[in-house]
Amino acid sequence: MSNTTTKPDRIDRAVEIIRAGNKILKVDYYSNGGQVWFVESSDAKKNYRVTEQGCTCPDARNGICKHQWATAGANAAMLIFKMRQAGGLLALFEMAELHAAALAGLPVGFLRVARDEYRQAKTRLIERITFDKGVAA
Ligand SMILES: [Zn+2]
Q1: Measured in angstroms, how far is the CA atom of residue 96 from the centroid of ligand 1?
Q2: How far is the CA of 25 from the centre of ligand 1 (A)?
Q3: How far is the CA of 51 from the centre of ligand 1 (A)?
């Protein structure tokens, strides 16, 4: 995998945080409209302060962390999660078309990962079609 901006399992873990419903404790707003979230750590011993730009957890040094995906990038995380499970190209195209607008305001790092995931999903589905029809590579 050439994707160095995020580990694949960060998306899965972000979706777990979103679905848990009680890990994202509080949201503040900056006067400039930016948002700050407080997200409980996995061991529930501390809270991380999360924005679009960063997070106080150790993993945020390596790229967009699961806490950022679960808050600022929640729409993108859910889209990526669904794209990974897409059963066909049409479903994938529809997902991308439906949700692309919701991602418009995100920082470019999130969009780059979403775009890479879209391309990977598309490639996976195209290759599957080729194999299904018995066409030798
Ligand atoms: Zn974090």
Answers
A1: 26
A2: 14
A3: 9
| Rounded mean pLDDT, 93-122 | 92
The per-residue pLDDT for 8 is: 52
Q: Ligand 1 center to residue 78 CA distance, Å? A: 17
**Which pLDDT score is estimated for 104?**
84
| Distance from Cα 86 to the centre of ligand 1, integer Å | 27
Query: Over the range 102-135, which residues count as b (16 or more CB within 10 Å of their CB) and which as e?
Result: ebeebeebbbebbebbbebbbeebeeeeeeeeee
Q: What is the pTM of this model?
A: 0.85
